[in-house]
Design a protein that fits this description.
111 residues
Length: 111
């Protein structure tokens, strides 16, 4: 009787090992298939990323809109002078908001 039990246990262990091996092999095969599908598409590009970037049109100052003189936000009115430079009050307001955001984040990190 003990011999039958040992044989059954061995068979169950072998079946479990086979299932684990099948699962591992399936995962490996899926990964290899994904790599095989992506690689040819990437290899078709003749140019490097640097060459592709150099082929784009250069940006100039005409491509950008000037900053507005005033921006209304939840924390107050932000004012800019001289083409986008913040006033002292605006700079202080932004620093205060950044301090508040950091304090809030620190509070939430340690709850």
């Amino acid at each position: 009787m003990n011999m039958n039990m040992n044989m059954n246990m061995n068979m169950n262990m072998n079946m479990n090992m086979n299932m684990k091996n099948k699962t591992s092999l399936t995962a490996i095969a899926a990964g290899l298939m994904a790599v095989a599908l992506v690689t040819p598409a990437h290899a078709l590009q003749d140019k490097t990323i640097f060459e592709l970037g150099a082929a784009e049109a250069k940006q100039t100052s005409k491509d950008f809109k000037p900053a507005p003189a005033k921006i209304k936000t939840d924390s107050g009115l932000l004012q800019f002078t001289g083409g986008g430079y913040p006033t002292k009050e605006t700079a202080q307001n932004v620093w205060d908001q950044m301090d508040l955001q950091r304090a809030t984040q620190a509070y939430y990190d340690f709850i």
